[in-house]
Amino acid sequence: MPKIHSTQSGIGYGKLTLWELADPAATVQAAIELYGSDAATAAAWCALTANFDGREDDYRFWCAVFSKLGKKLQAKALSLTPL
């Protein structure tokens, strides 16, 4: 079970991040299955939303997903390009 981190002061709600719940590689596959060619756009949107909400750990998670998606989609596009 994921470990919940407490706040610095020890008072308030714990902090649970996507890093503790999901694997970026599995999220890449799920995003491609769900969004197809728009998967990178969806990941970028999630990264921006997390950033604007002040969720730094989630922002870094979605940036990792976006980066992996870009590489995977680029490799796929190159394999489909006729020589």
Question: What would the keywords be for this entry?
Answer:
about 0% strand; about 80 residues; mainly alpha; disordered N terminus
Q: How is this structure best described in words?
A:
The protein has helices at 18-21, 24-35, 39-52, 56-80. α2 crosses α3 (39-52) and α3 (39-52) runs antiparallel to α4. Mean pLDDT is 81; it is low at 1-10. By secondary structure, it is mainly α.
Share of helical residues: 55-70%
Radius of gyration: 16 Å
Low-confidence regions: 1-10
Task: Provide a count of the helices.
Answer: 4
Largest sheet: none
Return the string of H and E elements: HHHH
> What characteristic shape results from the CA principal axes?
elongated
**pLDDT average, as an integer?**
81
Could you say which structural class the secondary elements and strand pairing correspond to? Answer: mainly alpha
Beta-strand content estimate: under 5%
End-to-end Cα distance, whole Å, is 49 Å
> How many β-strands, per DSSP?
0
Summarize it.
This protein has 83 residues and is mainly alpha-helical.
Show the helix and strand layout.
Layout: H1 18-21, H2 24-35, H3 39-52, H4 56-80
Helix pairs in contact: 2-3, 2-4, 3-4
